[in-house]
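User: Here's a chain of 253 residues. Predict its fold as tokens.
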Amino acid sequence: MKREILIIAAAFFLSSLTAITGVYAIEANAKTVTILKEETDITGDGQNEVIWLKGVPYRDKDSYLKKIYIDVAASNGKTYKFPLESGAKASLQLVDLNHDGVKDLFASVLTGGSGGITINYLFSLKDFIHTNLTVPEPLEVESRYVDGYKATINLTATGKTYEFDLNDRIKYYKKLGLYHNGKLNEPTELTVNPYSTLVPNSFKGNEMGLKGIQRITGIVNADTIAYVETYWIYLNGNWKLVNADVQKEAAQK
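Assistant: Prediction complete.
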């Protein structure tokens, strides 16, 4: 009986080992694609580094990337890796955003969901020190529907309030049961999304900063009501809001 148990245990162990080996083989053979390759100085020593933005698709010819990362072959002979989140697309720009005279690594990953949201990163490798400079948090916004087929949006950082006429959507809102005779059936907030885009932008005396756009939607994700535009500058180790505004989405047909 003991011999039979040992045989069964050994068979189970071998089958498990085979399965694990198979997983590692698949992982080892996973196709890595190069999204971007650049050569420039990002350490400040006057010599160029080689920078790759790479991704690993879930399957061959699959546009969604299960792994995304930045590889840097530095002039000191070392290799540095910056892992990013998975997503549908990724981009990398080499630009000095912290104003120290050395280019930084600014990366964006499109999550691939219906909201069109991006995850953004900012790293420095000055003096061969791996530093996460972070990016500005999305702006805090208070927004809601109000009676009369309207919406109000308040930017906490500036104290400004914006009101938008949504009469072009009366039939749509009636069908969804949001309004009855111009009155809200119940208090309803809008949805303030994270950044749909966050990109380097030159402003304020040609200094480089970041421009962000956040989409504000209504009762469903397809009901875009407005966009929040923000401008940020990196000062003394922190992101400072330079300007913020809200623009109305074009009328729906």
